[in-house]
UniProtKB/TrEMBL annotation, chain A:
It comes from the Eukaryota. It comes from Fragilariopsis cylindrus CCMP1102. PROSITE patterns: GNAT. One of its GO terms (molecular function) is N-acetyltransferase activity. GO terms for biological process: mitotic sister chromatid cohesion. Residues 7-188 form the N-acetyltransferase domain. The keyword Nucleotide-binding does not apply. Signal peptide: none annotated. This is Acyl-CoA N-acyltransferase. GO terms for cellular component: NatA complex.
Automatic annotation (TrEMBL), chain B:
TPR repeats lie at residues 93-126. Keywords: Repeat, TPR repeat, Transferase. Pfam families: NatA_aux_su, TPR_8. GO terms for cellular component: cytoplasm. SMART domains: TPR. This is N-terminal acetyltransferase A, auxiliary subunit. GO terms for molecular function: transferase activity. InterPro entries: NatA_aux_su (IPR021183), TPR-like_helical_dom_sf (IPR011990), TPR_rpt (IPR019734). Residues 663-672 have a biased composition (Basic and acidic residues). The keyword Repeat applies. It comes from the Eukaryota. The keyword Magnesium does not apply. Residues 1-24, 658-693 are annotated as: Disordered.
Length: 188, 898
């Protein structure tokens, strides 16, 4: 393993969104929908969606959003019908979670803690702004991970103390195995 | 600049002819002037009309009203009124002054000067008119007149700083250097001791340094200039400039030890990265001639003395010692101090320092590293070094081989162990591999190995797909490999990664223009123009010359001559404006005492028409007019074709095509108008801006008016400007020849040939023209005596040989020297055919048997050669086939080569 690379962060907006496509294309076997890119480029600031820069170039990105806590996990991860959940959750409907949609680092730059820095910066963002109106109802941080992706599961559970939740079957459409775990961590 | 509105008329409007207005009207007149100066034109008009109601023939009021109308963009009415006013009161200085101002606003300066002088004949002490006159005189470089006017002003009003300085400046500009110095000295004497103008501060400092500059301009006067520097040291705030001047004078006086000390002071002031100062340092240490220093100061970038001339080993050793013992230990962080010694060492020492230099650049990620390295590839030519640019020279250069081997070694070590050197302790960050691949691609570019370079860049984009620099370089390589459309795709892709990156946006626009995609290009560049109104107008207002030149070339490539001319004319207009812009400085700079900078500006303006952009615009204009002259039918393409010679069926078809074309054109035009209207409406709200006159871009957008001009006369006009202002360019004289020969100006053509030969007697463009001239001599219409002279001179150019022998000899040289440039070969082959020295098939062999070692071998020169080969007719058809095969193999990306 090489030395750690201390990266800088920068926001994602409509003028540089193509770089996110490049990163995702290089990192993930699935194609993300336009609504995902729209959400990311419209996100405010660089708290939840951000690029990691090394030596002037984008080498990775993390994209998260805030959503209702008990958003139906059996829906497809990237394209949820928001109007559906709003009334479903009864008493909990004010509670929210940070949902990590994607975390990707270009292959050549892996193993140098860039992913960890990205996740940590999202956690830091929460720590520093947890009383802000946007984050004050957030109680948890969540993501989905393919059940076969041992490295990722290890990464989240060992480094950041995430817990392994339920298996969600047939979460993915075009990759095998199609099942995923929900990983989560209570934030307060 | 618009004429200034201040105080055109003095307090006495009744002056002249002794017909004073009554009190009431006289007051009204004063108000007219006041409102004019405050730009309240409507009020001013109302009041002048009130006067004119009672005194319809009052000359000064008529003139003033005209002047006001002129400010309201009613030029024609203005001229009529001012003239009318002048007729009614020829003896009024106000009328003449106004007449002058009117001409000035039309930029008709010579007429304006005449009018001012007339006004002064009536009222010779009028300061305002004298000042206006002096501005015009300096603008028109009527320097003797300027001195007189400034002298008059100073005599009338000798207590103003500006008047003293302007008079000193006038003396300086007319070459009366001692006079200028004494004017400054007398002025300084008028000031009391201890006043602010004499103590340390910006104005005193500038004046002292200006005085010092004049002192140094006096021949052999460095001693005095040097002494003066010590005298004024206490008031000067620009100490760096003072030190540099001091070092220069000491150097010129041969006081090398002192000069060196002063240069060390300059370094100490923070100029360690100024390569010109380093050249000066080296010239001082080696005690070289003044001429060498002058040349070294003209070098650009990181080039210094040892990359300009070949130094002896001993000289190199002296310099190396100086850098190792003096400069480097004092400034270990200076890039220049590590960079310069690399040009002083050879063998292993060079290798080692190069190794460190490149690795540092790769780790840091320096996009310009390859360009920097190419400056080590020096070739000696006529006792001076040049940087090798032709791939043939590059590849043969031992340092190129050295660099390439090193970089290949880095790459393989990186790929096996993530290290640049196998003995390194720590691994490199991943970006190092990216930049190494990028550098390798750049080196491939230098060697014209485009496919290999593209492969490197594909690897680097796989490594870091967000690296915009890699897209840019890849686009450049794809273009050089002959696929401009492919290059556009690559760079546009890179551009899309960051839509706020103006640089890559501009590059994309350029590529699109080169690829003939003008609509898309406008679309891209419009992302950075004002988002309201017509972007083309906005680009014109911003004087975006590179875009307009690119678009002009794009239209010319499509044979849309009018539109191309229109774009070139826009750039030419920018230069008129740059020239006009001087007006802003004439009074401002003297007031602010920035006299050194001001004289530099004047010098710059004098050479304005020698600037690259002007040259490109003028040359493009000339070429188009020559095309139009050679084939006037190209102007008629929009008219109805000649139906009389067609059969009925052909006629029908032709008419249908014409109709279709017309409908399409109308549709396009309507769309454009609609778009424009919409954007104008969206961007509206400027209130009253709409009735402004059309910008140059909107008037005659297709350049139809420009095409109506006499093509040869227009070409002559611009060619004359170029020969005056750009005499050191080959292209100037090529065009001069092309224009002159069409105008049957044999002597002018001959002069151009002599200039070309002097600049480069081996250039293809020169050979092309001298052969053309020699062949044409018998057809020249001229008297026997002149013809004899011309024949004799031409024979001198041909080295006393017949034109056939001349061409045959060149052909023999080309055949025996494989590095003979392709364009030259093409011209020789063509000349063999035009002089009937060899058969077409045999002549073609000069081109097609050239092999891979030809200089200037690129897609463009291959196309030109193909054009010549095709012109040889059926006898050379086998050669055409062979050439196409050769080129296709060399440039597999070229799609449309045939």
């Amino acid at each position: 393993m090489g030395r750690d690379l201390k990266v800088e962060f920068g926001r994602i907006n409509e003028d540089n969104i193509e770089q996110l496509r490049k990163v995702n294309l290089a990192c993930f076997p699935v194609q993300y929908q336009e609504s995902y890119y729209k959400d990311v480029q419209d996100s405010k600031g660089d708290g939840l969606c951000k690029f990691a820069y090394w030596n002037g170039f984008v080498v990775g990105a993390a994209c998260a959003r805030i959503e209702p806590l008990n958003k139906d996990d059996k829906n497809k991860g990237t394209d949820k019908d928001k109007t559906n959940d709003d009334n479903d959750n009864g008493a909990d409907n004010k509670k929210q979670r940070i949902y990590i949609m994607t975390l990707g680092v270009l292959a050549a730059y892996r193993g140098r803690t860039i992913g960890a820095q990205l996740i940590q910066s999202i956690l830091d963002h929460f720590e520093n702004h947890m009383m802000d109106p946007e984050l004050k109802n957030v109680v948890e941080i969540t993501l989905h991970v393919q059940i076969s992706n041992d490295d990722a599961i290890k990464f989240y559970t060992e480094k950041f103390g995430f817990e392994k939740g339920d298996i969600i079957e047939n979460y993915y459409r075009r990759i095998d195995p199609p099942h995923c775990y929900k990983l989560f961590k209570k934030l307060r | 600049m618009a004429p200034s509105n201040s105080a055109i008329v003095d307090a006495n409007p009744q002056a002249g002819q002794g017909r004073p207005l009554p009190k009431k009207e006289s007051d009204l007149f004063k108000n007219v002037v006041k409102h004019y100066e405050q730009k309240q034109y409507k009020k001013a008009i109302k009041q002048s009309d009130a006067i004119l109601k009672k005194y319809p023939n009052h000359g000064e009021t008529l003139a003033m009203k005209g002047l006001i109308l002129n400010s309201m963009s009613k030029r024609d009415d203005a001229h009529a009124l001012v003239k009318q006013g002048l007729m009614h009161d020829m003896r009024s200085h106000v009328c003449w002054h106004v007449y002058g101002l009117l001409h000035r606003s039309d930029r008709n300066y010579n007429e304006a000067i005449k009018a001012y002088k007339q006004a002064l004949r009536i009222d010779n002490d009028n300061l305002q008119i004298l000042r206006d006159l002096s501005m015009l005189q300096i603008q028109m470089r009527d320097l003797p007149g300027f001195v007189i006017t400034r002298h008059n002003i100073l005599n009338l009003k000798s207590n103003g700083k500006i008047n003293w300085l302007a008079f000193a400046l006038a003396k300086h500009l007319t070459g009366d250097l001692r006079g200028a110095i004494s004017v400054i000295d007398i002025y300084l004497e008028t000031l009391p001791e201890g006043c602010s103008e004499k103590s340390r501060g910006f104005e005193a400092s500038e004046l002292a340094l200006y005085r010092n500059r004049i002192l140094a301009e006096i021949p052999d006067n460095y001693e005095e200039a040097l002494d003066h520097l010590s005298e004024c040291q206490n008031v000067v705030v620009d100490q760096t400039s003072l030190f540099v001047s001091r070092a220069t004078y000491q150097y010129k006086l041969g006081q090398y030890t002192e000069a060196k000390k002063t240069i060390m002071d300059v370094f100490e002031r923070g100029l360690t990265e100024n390569y010109k100062i380093h050249s000066m340092y080296m010239c001082t240490i080696l005690e070289l001639d003044n001429d060498i220093l002058e040349d070294a100061l003209k070098l650009s970038g990181t080039r210094t003395l040892p990359t300009m001339i070949s130094l002896t080993d001993e000289q190199k050793k002296i310099l190396l010692d100086a850098y190792e013992t003096e400069i480097y230990p004092t400034y270990p962080k200076s890039t220049a101090a590590t960079r310069i010694p690399m040009n002083l060492v050879d063998g292993d020492r060079f290798r080692n320092s190069l190794d460190i230099f490149i690795r540092k650049g790769l780790v840091k990620g320096v996009p310009s590293l390859c360009r920097e390295l190419s400056s080590f590839l020096l070739l000696e030519k006529n006792g001076k070094y040049e940087i090798a640019t032709d791939p043939i020279d590059v590849k043969q250069h031992p340092k190129y081989k050295l660099i390439v081997d090193m970089v290949d070694e880095y790459l393989s070590t990186l790929q096996s162990s993530n290290k640049l050197l196998s003995e390194d302790q720590v691994e490199e960050p991943p970006s190092t591999e990216l930049w190494t691949l990028y550098l390798r691609a750049g080196l491939h570019e230098l060697g014209a190995e485009y496919n290999e370079g593209i492969a490197c860049l594909d690897k680097s984009l796989e490594h870091t797909p967000t690296a915009v620099d890699a897209y840019e370089l890849k686009a450049r390589l794809v273009k050089a490999a002959g696929d401009i459309k492919g290059a556009v795709e690559v760079i546009d892709h890179g551009r899309d990664l960051d839509r706020q990156d103006r640089y890559i946006n501009n590059q994309t626009t350029k590529y699109m223009l080169e690829a003939g995609m003008e609509d898309k290009a406008l679309d891209r560049i419009s992302m950075f123009t004002k988002h309201e109104g017509n972007p083309e107008v906005n680009l014109y207002e911003m004087q975006c010359s590179w875009y307009e030149l690119g678009l002009g070339a794009c239209f010319a490539g499509k044979k849309e001559w009018g539109k191309a001319l229109k774009k070139y004319s826009a750039v030419i207009k920018h230069f008129d404006d740059f020239h006009e812009d001087q007006f802003d400085f004439h009074s401002y700079c003297i007031r602010k005492v920035t006299l050194r900078a001001y004289t530099d500006v004047l010098k710059f303006e004098d050479n304005l028409w020698g600037e690259d952009y002007y040259f490109t615009a003028a040359a493009g204009t000339i070429r188009i007019y020559l095309n139009v002259h050679d084939d006037p039918s190209i102007l008629k393409e929009n008219e109805e074709p000649d139906y009389s010679t067609m059969t009925a069926a052909q006629k029908k078809k032709a008419k249908a095509i014409a109709r279709k074309k017309r409908v399409q054109a109308e549709k396009k035009e309507a769309e454009k108008k609609k778009k424009h209207k919409e954007s104008a409406e969206n961007g509206g709200g400027g209130g009253g801006q709409h009735d402004e006159k059309l910008s140059l871009i909107e008037e005659d957008p297709d350049g139809k008016e420009l095409l109506k001009a006499d093509p040869l006369e227009e070409a002559r006009k611009y060619s004359a400007i170029l020969s005056k202002h750009c005499p050191k360019r080959m292209c100037t004289w090529e065009l001069q020849y092309d224009v002159a020969i069409r105008r049957n100006k044999v002597l002018l053509a001959l002069q151009a040939l002599f200039r070309l030969k002097e600049l480069d007697s081996n250039s293809a463009e020169y050979i092309l023209r001298i052969v053309d001239f020699a062949v044409k001599i018998p057809s020249f219409q001229m008297s026997g005596a002149v013809k004899n002279v011309v024949t004799e001179e031409c024979s001198k150019l041909l080295g006393g040989k017949s034109v056939t022998d001349f061409v045959m000899e060149l052909a023999a040289q080309a055949r025996s020297n494989p590095s003979t440039p392709l364009p030259l070969r093409a011209v020789i082959a063509k000349s063999l055919v035009t002089t009937k020295s060899e058969s077409e098939a045999k002549a073609a062999s000069v081109i097609i048997d050239g092999g891979l070692d030809m200089r200037e071998l690129n897609v463009d020169s291959c196309r030109v050669a193909l054009g010549y080969l095709k012109g040889f007719g059926s006898d050379a058809s086998a050669s055409v086939e062979k050439w196409i095969l050769f080129v296709k193999e060399l440039y597999p990306l070229v799609k449309d080569f045939s």
